Fold this sequence. Notes:
mainly alpha, Four Helix Bundle (Hemerythrin (Met), subunit A), disordered N terminus, 6 helices, 182 residues, single chain, elongated, 77% helix
Amino acid sequence: MGSEIPGFSAPAASFEAPLEMLAACHGRIRSQCATLLRIRSHVAAQGADAGARTAARNVIRYFDTSARHHHDDEERDLFPALLESMAGSDPVCIRELTGALAEDHRRLEELWGAVRPWLVAVQSGKAPPPGDAAIDDFVRLYERHADREEQELFPMAERLLGEAELERIGRAMRIRRGVGSA
């Protein structure tokens, strides 16, 4: 499962290279989704043992923090920057793309609201409520969403955004996470 942006040799995953960092985040999202599926299989076979509880806690922490930051990075900084870059020309395709991706974020948040209680039950060592459909929908949507960003959004951003705008986005990402200086 590659998380490289076409045209980039490898994600640098730093605030100085925000597009690469966002793409690298997709790799971590995919990894957390794979862990979620493994937890489900493990719990079905062996129950909510210590390993399942630890894994559930880690997945909850990731999607409660890092995934939310990722969505904010895109909606508060990247999407507006792309729309601004198209001033004076036809931004219809960018508006449609960013609008659809923002809708995906809302749906992912909704699905996370169904998946999270399942993981909380596992984390607590309890038999989780049924959650297979929500888990499958969550993982499928994240995969489709990440693919679309990597294939359409990030290459477009690389072409349209200048160095100063990318630096501003990276700075906003750093501030959002409370990392380093502004």
